[in-house]
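Consider this one:
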Amino acid sequence: MASAEPVTQVFMAGDSTMAIKEIKDYPETGWGVPFAYFFDDSVKVENRAKNGRSTRTFIEEKRWAGIMQELKPGDYVIIQFGHNDESESKKDRYTTPEQYKDNLSRFINDVRSAGAEPILLSPITRRYFESRNKIKLTHPYAPLVREIAAREKVQFIDMEVVTREYFQAMGDKDSALRFMHIAPGLHPNYPVGVRDDTHLNQLGAREVAQLVLAELRKLDHPLVKRLRTADAKHLALKY
């Protein structure tokens, strides 16, 4: 049943770990895809994240301007960048630490100026184990996000920590089932196979989306009051 509340837009600005994928890339899935299905009809999720984008290229390609043109008071913008900004070897997307911080601050202040609310996230972890029970720290820009979150006093979810601890607790074998690990000859999109410890598959994307929702609940965020009403038959199920 649709809510009587006015429709609230939730824009998602980020990179491939959040983005909607083309069919040719499945089962790679950005966590923003399952996240969009958590809410009732009073919320419309606009996933504008795009593969390979950094804060700099998101601005240069007018993707940020596109969000700002549609943003209205009472909306939200979820902001999560880092994977591409910190890729110093890829000059087409690399953003210096100072530029990165400036861009995040700009995003936050632009959203606030429009009467909307920013939600800042650190990038999700890469799945690189340095020992059986420990994932490497692979995001040198994660501390910069924390710095900006504290300075701007913005709603913040430290997804680098949340996802690292989550996948670390699973161990190497089980956590690999959440990422793009496909043996040769199994999937037509990846005939020679793939072993990718950055991008999520459908299971990983759903679980990361659920982690974001859990963190929003901890914040007692207003969006949590706009979740879907469960089908009555689902309430009779057991776990």
